[in-house]
Amino acid sequence: MGVIRAATPEDLDDIAVLAARRHARVQGAARDLSPAFTDPAVVKHALPADPQGWVDDREGSVVAGLLWEENEGRAIAGAMGTVGGPDVMARLYAVAGGAWLSEGLTTHAFVVHSMDRPLSDRLTDLSFGREEAYAIRTLGDRGGPRLDSGIDVERVGLERLDDVIRLGDLLARHHEGSPVFDRHSNQFYRGLAESYRRAVVDEDGRVLLASSTGESVGLLLWRPGAPYAFYDERSAEMILLAVHPESRGKQVGRTLVSVAMRDMASFGHTSAIADWRTTNLEASRFWPAQGFLTVANRYVRTVPARPDTG
Asked: Distance of CA 10 to CAs 15, 45, 52, 64, Å?
């Protein structure tokens, strides 16, 4: 058994080698992931130059690592910097969890490749639950067949921002219900207009609006590029899909995804990316049915506060 110690920049070479070997195994089963990350030099470049986290050091050789960052009040260990077997990762988390709590971070998250079942099972033993699925689908030359659904889809800009906000607001409020329970503050809802404007103006997002009998019934927002390093850089991401509740089950979502994939392919993208809350039952059925393959999952644990009485 090795020594658990703080990670240093000198450990990045060993962590990169471990991550590249694992990515080669994963990429063999999911060809749409970036083949570049089978090269340790590419992995090292994607890791933080001044890492924060811990490693398992066995006689001067790093055999496992847990690198993390804080994001929106959470401690998140990403897939690229989390390497090692399930038992040693449990030992690393025993150290990390206590350190995170001492910093006031009560929600802890790991992003794990879906093929790494032993680590997923170990996290479940540690009271983590699967929260988010990350998936990818090959586009092909033209992005897929055209779906003849009778739903009209057009690309729009900021002139239709009110429709975008209305439909996006419906999705957010759907997430607040059971069994998703993804609660949002009033500040979040007040900031929706600016977040959508920023996605279109600053992130080169494309807005597709679906309509039926003259009424806006669905929205899909996508943007070029990969949100995480392990995806192929030629990917494009579907960041928002919302369908009006009265129009669900009428192929609005399928039509929007079909148009979006052809749109992506016309810009030279080779694969489409989507993610969803696993507690969103509709999304968990919808995206796999559209041919998306889950390649990673986010596991989350929130440590409860100490009881006030007793």
From this structure: 10, 13, 12, 14
Residue-wise pLDDT tens digits, 36-89: 889 999 999 999 999 999 999 999 999 999 999 999 899 999 988 899 999 999
Q: What is the largest CA-CA distance in the chain?
A: 70
Sign of CA dihedral 265, 253, 226, 139: negative
Give the count of beta carbons closer than 10 Å to the beta carbon of residue 280: 20
Count Cα atoms within 13 angstroms, Cβ side, for 124. Answer: 8
Q: Where are the beta strands (DSSP E) in 104-255?
A: 107-113, 129-138, 152-156, 206-212, 215-224, 235-243
Helices (H), the chain: 12-29, 40-46, 86-102, 117-125, 161-176, 186-190, 192-201, 252-266, 281-289
Of how many residues is the chain composed? 310
Q: Are 229 and 204 in contact (CB under 8 A)?
A: no
Of all helices (H) and strands (E), which one includes residue 62?
A: strand 61-67
| Radius of gyration of the chain measured on its C-alpha atoms | 21
- Give every CB contact of residue 248 below 8 A, 6+ residues apart in sequence: 282
Q: Which pairing describes strands 61-67 and 69-71: parallel, antiparallel, or unpaired?
A: unpaired
CA gap 206, 222 in Å, rounded: 5
Domain boundary among 95, 126, 157: 126
Can you tell me the distance from the alpha carbon of 243 to that of 276, in angstroms, rounded to the nearest whole number?
15
Q: pLDDT tens for residues 105-142?
A: 999 999 999 989 999 999 999 999 999 999 999 997 77
87 and 159 assigned to the same domain: no
* Tokens linked to 167: 């439909």
Q: Are residues 107 and 169 in the same domain?
A: no
Q: For residue 117, give its domain range.
A: 3-126
